[in-house]
Amino acid sequence: MRRAWALLAIPAVLALAGFDHAPRAESSIAASVSCNNMGSGSFACYASASGGSGGYTYTWSWYQKRLGHTIGGPFPAPSPDPEAFGTCSLGYTVYVTVTVADSQGATTAASTQLLCRQWPD
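The chain above was modelled as a monomer; its predicted structure follows.
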């Protein structure tokens, strides 16, 4: 009789424990970034995000490179804004990455590059 009681008690205890085996929805974010050469050694970048749970934050970084010579980078520039501005050395290619996080902590990244020039695009 004890054995039968134990076999009946185990499923009851597991049911009370509240195990949740339902699959959880994955939160996926999509991001894009574009940058414009503003001239005189400056640039502006803009990001957009979609999906996920909203409430996005943006972390920006960039570095400069020319003929195999890298300077300074990456320069972290955390920002809650979907835009960033920076300075660059004329003739160098600037590599920009933005990492986007939503309010649930899901992240994604997008990258682009531009040539730093004297005159605006």
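The domain at 23-115 is CATH 2.60.40.10 (Immunoglobulin-like).
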